[in-house]
## 1
Amino acid sequence: MNRMLVSRISRRVLAEHHLALSKSLGTNSLSHPEDPHVGIIYTALNLRHSIDKCVALLHGRPHDIEDETEEGVPNRGWPEVIVDGHIDTKFSYIREHLE
């Protein structure tokens, strides 16, 4: 089962990458300075930006879990996300897989 799933994901990634490369060759725009990528691989993926995007999506969802905190007060909000460390780190990665 594991081998089948890895094989399926690998084929899907290769197909998406091929389509993105073909599309960029057709428009004659391999890389834009504001969004550097080759196919589906972003060559300068900003980790802080991706985390902030995911946090914004999370905060946009309704919070329907009504657990109580230790003090007996209902917990009605999403947790705060704190990004610490090398926050301006950029590396090559597939954005959708990270997010």
## 2
Amino acid sequence: MEAGKTRRSYGAEFKRDAVKLVIDRGRSAREVAKGLGVNETILYRWIKQYREDPENAFPGNGNLKPEDEELRGLRRELEDVKEERDILKKAVGIFSRVRQ
């Protein structure tokens, strides 16, 4: 990024409205991007995201789609279970040596 330029962030509602101008109203992406002061490439990315999953498009900063949130939780749970398993293996090894 060039010095002095800051990265703009756009809210989900803004993105959704911009996409709907192209999809529902039939306006060109170039025209909408220019009118909103948004890079045309970014608008095309928003359109792609919206078409892939209209319900969960643009979840926001730090927010995940429900299936991604579930996946994150399952991975965390799997790590916990692996850690518990490793602890139990060590405990079995310790108690096995004590009995001999």
## 3
Amino acid sequence: MLSFTVRMTFDQAEHDAIAEMLCQLTAATRKEPGCVSYIPHFVEGEACTIVIYEQYVDKAALEFHRNTPHFHQYAIGGLYQKMRERQMENLTAIC
């Protein structure tokens, strides 16, 4: 199982556009084979920051996700173009 978070910051003026892109990306991603969990969040008290919690059954499922048309449209062509900063944290499950 692969688990990680992605944290991105955006300009406040992009809040509604970011929310819409994330809703579209989330709906499509959750239908992918191998996607266990995909949950985007706005960070409370930091309206310009999002955190996405993602889990995939294996590396092949993550690669599948990163090669989908919706990932290219909403992440690479949308979120990545509008973000100011991006950080990833790879996670290791304890139990």
